[in-house]
Structure formats: structure tokens, C-alpha cells
Amino acid sequence: MNSSHHRWLLEQLPQWERDGLLTTDAARTLRERHTAQQAAADAQPGVAQIIMGSLGALLIGAGLIAVIGYNWDDFSRPMRLLFAFVPLLVTQIASFRVLQRGEAAAAWVRETAALLQALATGACIAIVSQIYNLGGEWPDFLFWWMLLSLPLVWVMRSQAVAIFYLVAIATWSVNQIEHGNPWHDSALIYPVLLLGLLPFWPGWPPKQTLSVSVRWVMTISAIFGLCSAAVFVCETSGLFPRFQFSTAMWLWTLTAAALTLFPLNQTAFEEPTRRKPQVVLGSLWLFGYGLAATFHEVGDDVAGGMKHALHLPWCWGLLAVLAVFVLLALKQRRWAVLSIASIALLPLVAFPFERLLSWVFTLHLAAIGLTLILLDFSGRRGAPRFGALLLSVLIILRMADSHFSLLAKGIGFIIVGVAFLAFNLLMSRRARQPALPSA
Amino acid sequence: MKTLPLFIFGLAAIAQWAVPLAQIRAHEQTLAQGTLIKLKCAAPDPYDPLRGRFLAVRPEQRDATLPEGMKVERGMHVFATLTTGADGLATITHVSLTPPASGDFIRLKTGYVYDRKATIQWPFDRFYINEKLAPEADKWFAENIRGTKGIIAEVRVLDGHAVLADLSLDGRPFREILKERVK
User: Fold this and answer.
1) Cβ-nearest to B8 among A84, A138, A155
2) CA separation for the pair A204, A198 (Å, rounded)
3) Which of A181, A293, A423, B114 places its Cα 20 to 30 Å from the Cα of B12?
4) pLDDT value of residue A146
5) Are B134 and B45 a contacting pair, CB within 8 Å?
6) Chain B contact set for A84 (CB, 8 A)
7) Is some CB atom of chain B closer than 8 A to the CB atom of A392?
């Protein structure tokens, strides 16, 4: 609960007391508890403050880099080097002062100091490489910049620098997919770079929860980084390297399944799905992949891609990670995500029926759709509307795929549309029915 | 105040100084003590979002012949011996996996390897210039790159390390020519 939630609850208490909904004792207990929690929430930094601080730091840093970009030819080399090191020293002293103040330092000051220091580091190495005409493309420069900024995430607990690091490692990985690079200079090291953030998020299960914005950036970074690694391993060697798209597709799908099943602690498990970007984005990919694979030609490509992928160590690494995540998800009874993640493993399980793979996908997705509806009707946590949507899309795809006349297809679409609307209406009425008091 | 965060911060701060300082040391040493090597090159005028305008320096020699039996893969580091010809321009005359005992050499990366040849990635590929001079530099390049004299990259070489010191045309430094043209 944030500060406004506590305030709202405290405002309601007198009315609830008057209406007899709460006893005086219960109201006092709630008042004491939520007054303390509101005070704690008020002491937390405002998001606006952090954003403004970070924006200020970003503008100063960007300005510094642009000034460097001008190239002050008229100054001597030592003078230009002074331009590089003075801002770095100033920002280091500022960060040290913030660290000395510890918890007493406001969060936005900590964020601003850390981001300024990270930018001053970038500006410093930029000016040195400019003065000495150092070679190398900007991803090389970015690599050193992000590594030198990483410790600031740990010690200053800076979300802004963490976001910069996540964006930087993803950007760097996307740029390192060219075949022929040694493995240690390729997207294959993305997982190691991502693990570099662990001290920011220590312990297992993690003691601190990440903000939603960091979670989204981390998920998107992981998608780009891990998918770049998959692209890197999917290029054949030789004089004319060739990228194997269907192989990469299956590796991306295994990555999506691993993201969807990423282990959660109990608090995170109970959070709404929209606060779990790895589940949202992973599931979207898996359903898209699953629906595409219901087409015969795509199903054949999926089977071919999987066969080739099984020769790659990266694929076995992903399968091993996935196996661990599946076991943990089974332990936590995360049935919904397990059923969604199973789409990724379908080509492997249905390998003996390779020719019928598209039908296996159709039946499997239909089963998931039905399960999501039936779970809700049996009083468990399901997603009936999503289940109905999945079934509708499957029917529409099969209709579009069929050799029926345009008239028959049109009528079919209308029937599915009407059935979908009717189901939606039924669910709305069900939601409006008051819950029966428990015995 | 906790000691560990301060200790890590101290290490990070030192690293933030050490990385550029190490670069400065290596480059200053090469500039001061290195042998001057001249390479004929091509140089258009692109832009780096972080470091400003530069002339992309591409020495004419793009590949080198590998000695018999030498196994090289793409992305490997090799040592290229540079020999100056009668025209005063240097070319790669030998490639080895270990530093040669004598002569001027550069440590560089190999690109594609075919037959007994390997394309090479020179350790310098850009010469940064002032934003105001950049458009004039572009014109100067277009006028002179196809001339018989060509644009020369002056590189200082020391113990395998190379620093691009200047560009010149007909023995005159590039910046000097540009400043005259801008006046």
C-alpha cells in the first residue's frame, strides 16, 4: 500500500465506526497500524523527485558529453585531459559524501549523485579516446562504460544506474551477434553481465523487491540479451555464414518459457500479473509461437528448428535452466504458468508425431483454453475470458486455414463472434452475483 | 557507516581513474618513444554520438599473406611486422602469432581468413576533429584522396602498440592545412 491508500483508509474509519462496521477497538488498532505505515510511506522518496533528479543528472551528463564532442582543438592535451578528470573527481566526491550520510541522504540525492558519476565516467573515457584517436566502435566504448558504472548500482543502490546498465548490456549484446566473434566478446556473456546486478538484489529468495519500472527494463533487457545470444549460436560457420531462423525461433521460445517460469518468492507470487512483466511478455510470445505453429508449414519449420537446436550447447543450457524452473514452479503449484510454458516443450514431447505437430499444437492450445475456463468455474484461480479468447482465435485460424467457401467462413466467424460475446456477458453477470457467505 | 560499501566504492572510483589513466600512459609512451610509420589511407567524415566528429581512417592495405602452416581464425590477435618502402610508406611484410624479435610491429586482429590470406583490422580507425573543421575536412578529403600523393596516416608504433598521431598530405599536417583553408 502506498501513502494515498493508507490516507484513504484512515479517512474511512470514522464513517465505518459510525455505521457499526467496526468496533472502537478494531478502529483504534487499524488507526495505529496505518498511521505508522503512512508515516513510513511518506518518508519514502517521491517518484517525481527521483525522476526530476535523474533527469537533471542526465541533462548535465549529456551536456558534458556534447561539449566533449565539440573537440577543443585549441587546448593542449594536458588541458583537455583535465576537462576529463575534473568532472569525474567532483562527482566522486559528491557520491562519497552521499555514502557517508548513509540512510540520512535523500533517495533522489543518491540517485542523482550515482547517475552523475556514471555519466562523468563515460565522459572521461570518451575524451581520452578522442584525444588519442582510439579505435573501436561505440559498443566497445559502451562495454567499458557500463562495467565501470556497475559498482555504483551496488553501493549507491541507484535504480537509474541499474536501468542504464540493463539497457547498456542489452544494446551491447544486440551489437555482438555477428558470427565469428570469439565467445567471450559475443552476446553469449549476457547472462554473466546480468548476474552482475545480483548484489543489487541480494539473497535467495531476494530480500528486497524491485520496483516495477526496473522489473520491466530487466525483462526487456533479458529478452534482447538472451535472444541475441540465441541468434549468435544459430549462424552456421563457413565462408558464407547463414542464419537459421527456425532454430533461433525455438531457442527464443525456450527463453520465453524460462522467463515465464522465473522463480518467485511468496510475496511476488501473490502480486497481480501486470506487476510481473516476465510472465506477461513470456506468455505473449509463447501464445504467439503456439498459434503460429498450428499452421502446417510453420509446424514443419518448428520441428526442423528444434532438431537442429538440439545440437547446440546453448539449447541444452536453456533446457537445464528450464528444468530447474519447472521443478520450482511445480513446488509452488504455479499451474497456469506451467501450462503456458509447456507450449515451448511441445515440439520435444511430440517428436514421434512430427508430421502431426501442427495438430498437436492446436489440441494443446485448445486444452489450455478449456483449462483456463474450467479452473474458474470450479472455483479456482483461472482466466476464463483469456481461455475463451484462445479458443476463438484457434477456431478462426482453422477456419481461415480451411478450404471452406467464403460464405461458410463468414458464417463461422459470425457464430464464433456471437459465442464469444455471449460468454463475455455470462462472465459479467457471474462477476456481479454476490458471493455466498461461507459456512 | 558500513565499511564494505565504502570499500567497493573506493575500488570503483580507483577503477574509473585507472582505466583512462592506463590508456593515457600507454598512448603517451608510444607517442613519445614510438617509431613513426606512414600508411597511405582513405578517410571519409562520419560522426560518433559520444565522441564527436572524426575522419574514418582506413589504411589501403586490407589483408596480409600468412606464412606457410600458420593457423589463424577470425578474431585472433596476431603480430604484423611493418616495413617502410622506398616511397617512405609502410606495409605489412610478415605476420606471426608471437611478437617478432626485431623490427616495428603492431598487434592487430584478423578478420576473414581465406586461402593463405587474412583480412586485418587495424588498431586505429578514426581521427577525431573539431566540429567546426569537419565540413572543410570532408571537402579536403574529397579533393585529395584520389590524388597520386594520397592522404597519409602518421602512426607511432612501440612494442606492438600503435597510436594514430596525425594525418598529412605532402608532408604537411592535416590540421594546419585545414586551418588555412577555414580562414
Assistant:
1) A155
2) 10
3) A181
4) 93
5) yes
6) 20
7) no
Query: Is the previous residue joined to A205 through a cis bond, with omega within 30 degrees of 0?
Result: yes
Task: Output the pTM of the full model.
Answer: 0.78
Determine, for residues A154 and B52 on separate chains, whether the beta-carbon distance falls below 8 Å: no
For residue B58, give the chain A residue with the closest CA: A135
Q: Identify the segments of chain A with pLDDT beneath 70.
A: 1-4, 36-50, 65, 68-74, 179-180, 201-208, 236-241, 381-382, 433-439
Chain A residues within 8 A of B32 when measuring between CB atoms: none
Q: Which residues of A touch B74 (CB under 8 A)?
A: 180
CB A169 within 8 A of CB A193: yes
pLDDT tens-digit series, residues A248-263: 999 999 999 999 999 8
Cβ atoms within 10 Å, residue B154: 16
Mean pLDDT to the nearest integer, B32-41: 81
Q: Please indicate whether, in this complex, the C-beta atoms of A128 and B23 are within 8 angstroms of each other.
A: yes
Distance to chain A for B88, nearest Cα, Å: 23
* Count of C-beta atoms within a 10 Å radius of residue A4: 10
What residues in B contact A68, CB-CB < 8 Å? 51-52
A100 at B interface, C-beta within 8 A: yes
